[in-house]
Write a structure and sequence with these properties.
Two copies of one chain form a homodimer. With 327 residues, chain A is an alpha/beta fold. Chain A has 14 helices and 13 strands. A seven-stranded mixed β-sheet of chain A has the order 4-3-2-1-5-6-7, with helices on both faces. A six-stranded mixed β-sheet of chain A has the order 9-11-10-8-12-13. In chain A, a hairpin with a 4-residue loop joins strand 10 and strand 11 (271-278). In chain A, helix 5 packs parallel to helix 6 (101-110) and helix 7 packs parallel to helix 12 (215-229). The longest helix of chain A has 17 residues, at 120-136. Chain A starts with a strand and ends with a helix. At the A-B interface, helix 8, strand 12, strand 13 and helix 14 of A face helix 8, strand 12, strand 13 and helix 14 of B. Strand 13 of chain A pairs antiparallel with strand 13 (300-307) of chain B.
Chain lengths: 327, 327
């Protein structure tokens, strides 16, 4: 069994979720004939490095392992020095310049190292350039986890629907704003109250703008437009309108006529905006669910619905990409 | 470019849909580096055989090609004599004994020939035996098209969610009965009237029992139970209750309390029965749509929604299996 050496960059919610799932699935991975070994975990202030394999249980506890194998090396230095087989880039993205993830990804790809990432910003800003860099260096840049959390929409298309031409893609790509809109409808409350409720449940951040102003959705629209519809566009090409102006009155009026108001990413038209969705339509999902509809020329409309976020759920998509490379 | 030689057995709605899609996608298939050549089309009373490749345009017209290349050879003889690379078994299935498809599939697999099929009956009766036969002969038996028409649920799991253990699977697996139930709710009409409407639209057959009595759903439950949940069961192990006894009153009562009545295939519990589904749930899809929900341990609940039938749509699933083999 060949060992695949992994460096995890960013050990926040997503990184820890990935480590947890690796532990949970240890036995099953061996049955699949895959040996994944985490040789580095890089954080902002230094890295844990152990070529024999980091003890993930201890790392998750933040325990003694940290002291013993701790080095002040930064992520880019770890990449260049240790040359893992796969870099897992899981830092939070900055949509203005894509850093620090962009630098990590470029360093890895340039050094002939595969990358798997959940970080939207670098791809939303430089999709084409990064894919080209991967191709040139004959490595893979896996990004299933950047869109739709656990929903394998990109690999679904690549591996099972490729004979289809995609005519358009629409989606509810942000669970937080969908939760807010659903709450507004169910409880007839204002946007502010619904956001507050989402914040109390840990679904919305203290500054909810990234979600409810449509920024997050737009980043995902960019990635889907490039990867599934062959458009060469960047984040700045997306027309964005969030849900701040949606009133309980507008939602009630829509409901009376048989519609829900949803924040829709329209990939074909490069647009994010609140739209009416007919009740009973596959896109009419409530709570923090995401839904993506591919309108194809042969298979017709295929919709996939699932949890768009969550550390454990996202690990499913990360692992799907990792396994593809490891085999 | 390697040529893949295909024999199509059964040239009814599904077979013709496949041929049509092959014609439509000719150029794209070449771009993918795949050369598919139909060398035989077998019908009940004989076969069209042409090793140079059958002219599909003429075959679809039922034109002169039929006379020139026509032979009285039966499908099993064509399989043994011409040894195509892939047999496409597309005859209508008989759920009592699986014939004639079962014989075709066994003949092909035993002769070391790959099979791709949309025929539920043989798999619902002898899934394990057929898979074993394929394995022994080192060939593939592709059956994506047997469940959910265009929805690539089996390949979705196999290729992108395999790290997940499936806890349960529920689905609306029969478009006709879903259409009937939706009509009953929307128009407050009786089952008989809704069935009549479905028949007029070509959605239900003159004898609708196969669909509304849950037989078709049960066949699909069997296939999903074997393929995705590792159960070793046959069609006769499924507890079946169809929708004949559903009244407009029951539907109205459910609606008032926020539910729809749907014919659900419950794969974990090997059961087909009408059940209540909460409005707004991903499984609450109307019309002739199908929906399948996989409850997984890592990715959570993933639902896929799409057209469960249709000749062109089914061709998408058939081609997905064919391409997997051809490459």
């Amino acid at each position: 069994m060949k060992t695949t050496r992994i460096a995890i960059i960013g050990f926040g919610v997503i990184g820890r979720g990935f480590a947890e799932v690796l532990l949970r699935k240890k036995k099953y991975l061996r049955e699949l004939g895959v040996d994944l070994r985490v040789v580095a975990i890089c954080e902002v202030d230094g890295s844990l490095v152990n070529e024999g394999g980091i003890n993930l249980e201890e790392a998750l506890k933040g325990g003694s392992g940290k002291k013993r194998d701790w080095t002040p090396l930064k992520a880019v230095d770890v990449i260049k020095k240790h040359k893992p087989d796969i870099v897992l880039e899981l830092t939070p993205g900055n949509i203005k310049n894509g850093e620090p993830g962009l630098g990590h990804i470029i360093t890895a790809l340039s050094n002939g190292i595969n990358v798997v990432t959940s970080n939207k910003a670098p791809l939303a800003l430089q999709f084409y350039e990064l894919m080209n860099l991967a191709r040139k260096n004959n490595v893979v840049l896996g990004f299933e986890a950047t869109v739709g959390g656990a929903m394998p929409v990109i690999n679904l298309y690549q591996s099972t629907l490729r004979i289809n031409r995609i005519r358009s893609i629409y989606g509810i790509l942000n669970g937080t704003s969908n939760f807010v809109l659903s709450k507004m409808e169910e409880e007839a409350i204002s946007l502010d109250d619904a956001v507050k409720e989402a914040q109390e449940l840990g679904i919305a951040e203290s500054n909810p703008g990234y979600d409810i102003d449509g920024i997050d959705t737009a980043a995902k629209v960019t990635i889907l437009a490039n990867s599934l519809m062959n458009k060469r566009v960047s984040f700045k090409d997306i027309k964005i309108k969030g849900i701040r102006e949606i009133t309980p009155k507008a939602i009630e009026l829509a409901r009376k006529h048989g519609y829900s108001i949803k924040l829709i990413g329209d990939i074909k038209n490069l647009e994010v905006s609140p739209r009416l969705v007919v009740k009973g339509d596959p896109l009419d999902v409530s709570g923090s669910l995401n839904a993506i509809m591919l309108d194809t020329d042969i298979a017709g409309e295929i919709t996939i619905v699932g949890r768009g976020a969550g550390a454990i759920e996202t690990a499913s998509s990360l692992l799907s990409d990792v396994l593809e490379i490891a085999r």
